[in-house]
Design goal:
Shape: globular
Protein name: glutaryl-CoA dehydrogenase (ETF)
Domain Acyl-CoA oxidase/dehydrogenase middle: 129-219
Catalytic activity: glutaryl-CoA + oxidized [electron-transfer flavoprotein] + 2 H(+) = (2E)-butenoyl-CoA + reduced [electron-transfer flavoprotein] + CO2; a 2,3-saturated acyl-CoA + A = a 2,3-dehydroacyl-CoA + AH2
Number of domains: 3
Order of helices and strands: HHHHHEEEEEEEHEEHHHH
Number of helices: 10
Number of strands: 9
Bound molecules: 3-thiaglutaryl-CoA, flavin-adenine dinucleotide
Largest sheet: 4 strands, antiparallel
CATH topology of the largest domain: Butyryl-CoA Dehydrogenase, subunit A, domain 3
EC number: 1.3.8.6
InterPro entries: Acyl-CoA_DH_CS, Acyl-CoA_Oxase/DH_mid-dom, Acyl-CoA_Oxase/DH_mid-dom_sf, AcylCo_DH-like_C, AcylCo_DH/oxidase_C, AcylCoA_DH/ox_N, AcylCoA_DH/ox_N_sf, AcylCoA_DH/oxidase_NM_dom_sf
Length: 385
Amino acid sequence: MDPVDFLQSDDLLSDEERAIGQSVRDYARAELAPHVSDWYESGTIPVEIARGLGKLGLLGMHLEGYGCANTTATAYGVACRELEAIDSGLRSLVSVQGSLAMFAIHHWGTEQHRQEWLPRMATGDAIGCFGLTEADAGSDPGSMRTHAKRDGDDWILNGSKMWITNGTIASVAIVWAQTDTGIRGFVVPTDSPGFKAHEIGRKLSLRASVTAELSLDDVRLPSSAVFPDVRGLKGPLSCLNEARYGILWGAVGAARACLCEALEYSLLRTQFGKPLAAFQLTQRKLADMSIAVANAALTAVQLGRLKDTHCITPEQISHGKLANVRSALEVARTARAVLGAAGITLDHSVMRHMNNLETVATYEGTEEMHTLSIGRALTGIAVFR
Ligand code: TGC
Ligand code: FAD
């Protein structure tokens, strides 16, 4: 019996998906896990790790062509799970690169955008970021103020974006802006005059990840910089579907890691003359965590299958993101309690995961946004505003 896979959900994966999971797990445990608490403590993540992730084929993993691995969506999910078992910041790096920036270029870009950026992004030689949120437009991105105006054939972009993962390490930013014909997406090389990125400090969560504010001050772009065929929020939201899908798998990894650590600790730590695991109250915590982890894993596999058969809906992705992140956060908090005082340090992973999951519950749509999305699907009534 595998304590972190009580219902044997991994049996539902193909041999290839399991093999991909194993190789990501081996790589992450050997190359990333030994450093992650230091990165978290120092509030950074070395950009060089992107090349290692690229070599493994994890960047733009389920995209076709341009040096991308073209795996199943389920295999991509399994990779997210193994990365987030180490730290949510690692999965974030891969999500933003592959599901947001590369997906946007692959799906909405021109052939010229794809040729120019995707091969370098797949190897990790170029990093991308995705600028949708603004200081005054988070859950309601339709109220963004960043705008693009025509000047002859060129576009001139002005505005700012807030909370942008990978912002200071990116070579290319996908920036969403208001135009005369609705919200449109722009491919912005970050060395464009007028483009600046400032790192956001003092974070208590997702510290092994770079988060930035972008400012665009009369950034002049050629007419070819715009995504030609998409207008309105469905452009960015189609990319969010991809990233939210990766998150619902990633949350399973963080939750498994917390359960694993709590179980090990409870068997070793003795109080009142016996291991913590020998108390009924501890066993209840372990059983509750195991149930939450197993349910989240099954949810992920089912949504993976729906995505691989092109049957998944945005509301089902909302369900998975909300349910799995909520469960993972609950598991992390319980695991933290099992470890007592030891649980608050970086010598263990539980509080790092717990703090990270606070961000994961917020970005890519808060719990409230996904609740309203499910509510709308059930009732037919939209109550976002
Ligand atoms: P609403 O009127 O519902 O929709 C506007 C248009 O968008 C379409 N749409 C979608 N299309 C594709 N996928 C989806 N999931 C979609 N949801 C909506 C919709 O059909 C409509 O199209 P059309 O053709 O009629 O114009 O929008 P609203 O203004 O009422 O707002 C609601 C909404 C959907 C924006 C809100 O529920 C929401 O999702 N807010 C959350 C915003 C968000 O998730 N931001 C994430 C920013 S990126 C990020 O966090 C990256 S973290 C990266 C990391 O480090 O991992
Ligand atoms: P707000 O929208 O101000 O919401 C605050 C609270 O009010 C939330 O609880 C929310 O659910 C609630 N609320 C809002 N509206 C309603 C309503 N109608 N009904 C009920 N409750 C409501 N964005 C990007 O574009 N790119 C990135 O790469 C990116 N990376 C991020 C990295 C980190 C570390 C973080 C923390 C955020 C990142 N984000 C990114 C931004 C993220 O997507 C937003 O923080 C998120 O969408 C929520 O927006 P907000 O923080 O402005 O909260």
